[in-house]
Amino acid sequence: MDFVQSLRAKAAENIKTIALPEAVDERMLQAAGQITDEGFASIILLGNEEKISGKLAELGIAPENLTIIDPELSTYRLEFVRTYHEMRKRKGMTEDEAAKIMLDPLFFGAMLVQKGMADGMVAGAINATGNVLRAGFQIVGMAEGTNIVSSCFVMVKEEWDCGDNGMIVFGDCAVNPQPSAEQLADIAIDTAATARALCGFEPKVAMLSYSTMGSGSGPDVDKVIEATRLVKEKSPNLMVDGPLQLDAALVPAVGASKAPESPVAGQANVIIFPDLDAGNIGYKLVQRLAGAEAVGPVLQGMAKGVNDLSRGCSAEDIVNVVAITALQCK
């Protein structure tokens, strides 16, 4: 069984309800039909019921096992407006403004999650990442003990002899441009937890840099040194080391040469990039030039499962992210 199939199989063991606020997009409807056919999650589609039902019929998707909620007509709407106003009134929000915002399927979907009427939400096919995160931050909020929301990708290629069973988890590749040492430590801890939950292996975390154990110096190296120290302090049972150059992290011979005392060098299965430039460029290089499958981005650090999609995503990408979101739900 390949990785994405294993995700769906795990999700089917404990079926969760996932809201899809972008039901105006055909890819979302195709994904909803496939997910329902495979039976690993229950789906709520948000939008005009007549239009959604008509489009489902055009696509040959049976609506019987899908829930459709129109935010404008929903009996939940007044309760959601009151709750949202209460959340935001200290920021100066009026009830009229709250009522208008709650017509937005993104915010309505986030409130379904907050209220426990849905376990998670997946969006971003037609909305910018900032809009998805704004709804998530304002309504769902961050997980207790977490100071940052970040992302990771599971990079998959069966032929790899590095990583773990053809998988390496990359973080953060989509959210934080210049994380501090403290934020980088939280990203490492959260990415390790995501790797454990999704991939089923014990994380071996490499904190990446242009320097391996003092071979170079400078503020950027100092940040990774401090982040590594903080990870060890906050999560003493996590196997982590750094700073490590990429080859020292992944190639056993290089790791043994450059960092012979390291418990991670040469065998890392989770790699943490020092900033978003490196992370975003790194995952795209591996995806495009090495031909690896990039599963994600997976958002981590939210109180409940909320995930963002690339606007270039396929229906199959949406299916995969729904499975991931279901597995993130407590």
Shape: globular
**How many strand elements?**
11
CATH class of the largest domain: Alpha Beta
* Helix content bin: 40-55%
Low-confidence stretches: none
- The order of strands across the largest sheet is 8-7-9-6-5-10
| CATH architecture descriptor of the largest domain | 3-Layer(aba) Sandwich
Q: Please describe the biggest sheet, giving its number of strands, its sense, and whether it closes into a barrel.
A: 6 strands, mixed
Number of domains: 2
Distance between the termini: 25 Å
Percent of sequence in beta strands: 15-25%
Mean pLDDT: 94
SSE ordering: HEHEHEHHHEHEEHEHEHHEHEEH
CATH topology of the largest domain: Rossmann fold
CA-atom Rg in angstroms: 21 Å
Question: What's the multimeric state?
Answer: single chain
Tally of alpha and pi helices: 13
Structural class: alpha/beta
